[in-house]
Design a protein that fits this description.
The chain is of the alpha/beta class and about 270 residues long. The chain has a single domain, classed as 4-Layer Sandwich (Purple Acid Phosphatase, chain A, domain 2), CATH 3.60.21. Helix content is about 30%, strand content about 20%. It contains 8 helices and 13 strands. Strands 3-2-1-12-13 form a 5-stranded mixed beta sheet, covered by helices on one side. The longest helix is centred in the middle third of the chain and has 15 residues.
Length: about 270
Amino acid sequence: MATYAIGDIHGCEKSLIALLEKISPSGNDELWFCGDLVNRGPSSANCIRLIRSLKIKTVCVLGNHDFYLLAAAAKACSPINSPNILSFLKESDKNQMVDWIRQQPLAHVRDKTILVHAGIFPAWDINSITSLSEEVSKNLKSDSWKQFISELWGDYPNYWNDNLKGSERFRAIVNGFTRIRFITPDEKLNYSEKGAPSEAEAPLIPWFSHKKLADLKYRFVFGHWSRLGLLVRPKLLALDTGCVWGGYLTAARLEDNKIFTQQFVD
């Protein structure tokens, strides 16, 4: 059995199909998706349909654009400036696809590997990662998910504290898992800086460079950060290589780090 992790798809159905042909997974393999399955690209609905139709095991974690779609479906925000989201919401099977999306977690942990969309707050240990993901998932799966999603919008609090309650707590959890790139040394999120680490001004550092994570005996697999690009390290695997911007859709076989790439063809 092999496990293939795939970076941000963003509705690029043709690129995904071509990449899957290169990977050629067998029935016992697993496909892990780093989130942001939808938006920006031309075929968000078809990407969801394709992933749901696969005959092998798939694991998908939620990204910030997936949450945006859920918020639009719940009428918690207006997608007036997002034609791809508007198109998705006109599909006849949109409710089934939305229900499937909200069943997906924020984090997936297997053995010594952690799959997330963007990253984590350095203060989180492995127990926090799994329990906080489950806190959000429980609400997303509930009948009151629309009210829950309407309370998630906002940049603050931009830090983590175990004593956070209610909507502030859930907002911090979701932003940590789906939006984090740079942080300050005291672990506050910076949302405005989206460039490569070499372009950031002090004291900003990539979330994964914080000293608190040095002793965590797990490997992170994530996407979200196209300007970071492909990064392969013993404890890090970054897979967003900007397919929707005309770059590549990238997959990695976790067992041996073999890389598969497909140039944008949508």
